[in-house]
Amino acid sequence: MKKLLALVISIVLVAGCFAGCGAADDGKYTIGICQLVTHDALDAATKGFKEAVIAELGEENVEFIEVNAANNPDTCTTAVNDFVSKKVDLIMANATPALQAAYNATTEIPILGTSVTEYGVALEIDDFTGTVGSNVSGTSDLAPLTEQAQMIIDLVPTAKTVGMLYCKAEANSAYQVKVVKDYLEGKGLTVKDFGFNGSEDVASVSEAAASACDALYIPTDNTAASCTETINGAVAPKKVPIIAGESGICSGCGIATLSISYAELGKTTGKMAVKILKGEEKVEEMAIEYDQNPTKKYNKTLCDELGITIPEGYEELK
After folding, report:
1. Sign of the Cα pseudo-torsion (101, 134, 179, 298, in order)
2. 145-259+295-316 is classed in which CATH architecture?
3. Tens of pLDDT, residues 201-222
4. Whole-structure pTM value
5. Mean predicted lDDT score pLDDT of the chain
6. Architecture of domain 2-141+262-287
């Protein structure tokens, strides 16, 4: 499988060599897209990004070189270094490891991140003010974390112990967990951390969390998002409800979420890209943008199974 994956990635990268590099005088552009892993949220962000760019520039005027890193940060590094060697006009980095790889690869080519929760955490910027100030900007998938935490209290009022289930390798997941944990502990609940290292121990850690807790919280976590079936298989038999950081995770294993639209987030990123490519704005002056309309959503199937009544104001996940 690993050899096959490497072959597929190599083919994608080689194909990109024929795409053309850099903006020509006729207004054509080459954009490198590095997406960390396949799951609904990141897929929607990439799709929205491409749609927005094509709508503004025309399909005939833009070439995308796309690499899916299959949740391997080393592949992100290989991909963005390839983009740099091709002198692409812009790099779109979908998820934090992709952004970190691009940030380390070039200080000249404009980089736009998307599906990145906290840029200050991701890029290790102290006292982050909302603008990176270098060749990096983009969009954040951060939803109001304290409101997500309050959903646990509102929807599972009998819960005394809440488990934080997340990937320890994802810095933005740890950031979200800390905010939610501080809020819940301030409300008198006991909070326990259950961090997995990667997909290989998701099942065992999820089962341990469900055995020890009355409810679980999963942040916007790429590893969790790609393992929702595994998580649900471990947690559902224990009848423990999960509040999720985004709708893709919620669809797979959660009862409810306060989530942003990743498709709209991608479109916003695409519009930012067009402004940069056209010279209308400088990337170093562009503040990180956020979805201003997070939506409360619920998973009817799992709520029915657990006998949880959802109050008004929630949309059913489709």
Report:
1. negative
2. 3-Layer(aba) Sandwich (3.40)
3. 999 999 999 999 999 999 999 9
4. 0.82
5. 92
6. 3-Layer(aba) Sandwich (3.40)
